[in-house]
Amino acid sequence: MLFHILYPMAEQFAALNVFRYITFRTGGAVITALVISFLVGPFLIKELKARQNKGQPIREDGPESHLLTKAGTPTMGGLLILISLGVATLLWADLTNAYIWAALGVTVAFGIIGFLDDYMKVSQHSSRGMPAKLKLLMQIVIAGIATFWIVDHLPPDLTTTLAVPFFKNMLLDLGWAFVGFAILVMVGSSNAVNLTDGLDGLAIGPVMIAAGVFALIAYLVGHYGFANYLQIHHVPGSGELAIFCGALVGGGLGFLWFNAPPAKVFMGDTGSLSLGGALGTVSVVTKHELVLAIVGGLFVLETVSVIVQVLSFKLTGKRIFRMAPLHHHFEKKGWAEPTIVIRFWIIASILALAGLSTLKLR
């Protein structure tokens, strides 16, 4: 919005020329989202606590300590991220950019699904929430619509292709199978973040790290000169997603202020489903879907731990981990919650650096 209002006035006021630069607007989005989070956070948490008498229902089959330390904490804190992210993006991004609307659309739509799930849990005082099949079906439909929108706006030579990291010219044309692959990336990323969200600050840290990495990737992919120099595939217009990712980082920082141990609010499915979907969408637009699996490797590990645990128990009757997802395994081993969170953040940072290395190692 500010871009459309102020940039046209640059001929009269030269200082307004800064609004043409994505880097400036990304910085503005980070600060705006952070400030909105700080301003809205206390009021929102107060309202959530007033409306959720018992807070988020705690899983009875989860770590016993959670029944004591986390009972009564309100959920749906993801609303704080969605509000700050949405407002900051609308203020600073080019609203004629199709990719911005794809990212915002998936994020908000997945957030609504998560909100409905959280609402059912709170209102029914149960950790079950929305039926898993219905939730998954809704995600698939939304991701499918977004994929067709993205494909329709991508350059003709990139519409249904998959770029392979470390190889500068390797593009695999998946044909119509790309639609299914893109849906898998968005829905898989969404649910992977959801599985990771189990400790105070655990999920939001790696999400911000991944968003920061993809802000840089989006900027480079959208800039012809940098894309050509790095020998990565140029997607005109994708640079605007750096602003979206910047807003996500700012909103995430603001949320972490209230989610740091001991958390005053949980993000709930409202936050985790939407944030994972946001990362998946950006990766599809920038043609860095496989890089997301590296940058978001922590989410992959958490998901794999659940899959392995379920398969092992069904096939052998034995569990590999003391509890899944993986962070609960370390809780059962006696690790303190802050220790798990910080060490997982370190792992996420290392994986982010590994993902960034793919930009040059081609």
The H-and-E topology, N to C, reads as: HHHHHHEEHHHHHHHHH
Low-confidence stretches: none
Query: What gap, in angstroms, lies between the N and C termini?
Result: 38 Å
The shape, in one word, is: globular
Helix content: 55-70%
Could you walk me through the main structural features you see in this protein, from its secondary elements to its overall organization?
- By secondary structure, the protein is an all-alpha fold.
- It has one domain.
- It has helices at residues 2-6, 22-51, 66-69, 78-92, 98-124, 132-153, 177-196, 204-222, 224-230, 241-259, 268-285, 289-295, 297-316, 326-332, 337-357; strands at residues 161-163, 171-173.
- α8 packs parallel to α11.
List keywords for this structure.
362 residues; mainly alpha; two-stranded antiparallel ribbon; 2 strands; globular
Give a brief outline of the structure.
By secondary structure, the protein is an all-alpha fold. The protein is built from 15 helices and 2 strands. It has one domain (2-158, 181-286).
Topology:
Blueprint: H1 2-6, H2 22-51, H3 66-69, H4 78-92, H5 98-124, H6 132-153, E1 161-163, E2 171-173, H7 177-196, H8 204-222, H9 224-230, H10 241-259, H11 268-285, H12 289-295, H13 297-316, H14 326-332, H15 337-357
Antiparallel strand pairs: 1-2
